[in-house]
Amino acid sequence: MATRHLYLLRHGAADALGHLTPAGERQADLTGRRLARLPVDAVWHSPLPRAERSARILATHLPRATVAAAPELVDHIPHVPADPPPAWAPFFDGYDAEEAAAGERLADALTARFARPAPAETHEVLVTHAYPVAWLVRDALNAPRPAWLGLSCGNTALTVIEYRDTTTPTLVLHNDMGHLPTDLRWTGFGPGLHP
């Protein structure tokens, strides 16, 4: 039975202009080292500079993998709930119906392209952003569309989903930072206590 193995990660830590910081470059390098033992066929990345740079760095450890942009991986809001939780209401304030519809179309294109079995065994890395990772996890769990709001991930934290023809998707890992030293973990999250 062929399995499509998707290794999802948010880009490395970036500055306010969207470029990787030195910490983000280290995160990407360490992620590439972790993935090096796997037979990775392809590294797909968002067209945004922080994701493309992260993909290029980690791909130096994956010599047989192709590297290419996938527009579906761009940073976007995949779903605007009709009645968002109070903590999220200010985030969506002013978000109009046209923007919401465009985000939903992009989210649907993302799942149509990547959240399905492949005709042959594949190992693909998707370097994207926090919201697309959350959206793909929500989809794999068959959770309601607003559930993406509670599925955060850190910079270069690894999430793995497997797709097979005969079963529902399998969420193998979510937000795994085991390849990062303590000082590089939990970047991309707000202040607070982290395990």
For the sheet with most strands, the description reads: 6 strands, mixed
- Gyration radius (Cα, Å) is 16 Å
What is the averaged pLDDT score?
95
Amount of beta strand: 15-25%
Oligomer state of the chains in this structure: single chain
Helix fraction? 25-40%
Q: Which descriptor suits the 3D outline?
A: globular
SSE sequence, one letter per element: EHEHEHHEHEE
Number-wise, the strands total 6
- What strand line-up does the widest sheet have? 3-2-4-1-5-6
Which consecutive residue ranges, at least 5 long each, have pLDDT under 50?
A: none
- Helix count equals 5
InterPro entries: His_Pase_superF_clade-1, His_PPase_superfam, Mito_Ser/Thr_phosphatase
Keywords: Hydrolase
Protein name: Histidine phosphatase family protein
Pfam families: His_Phos_1 (PF00300)
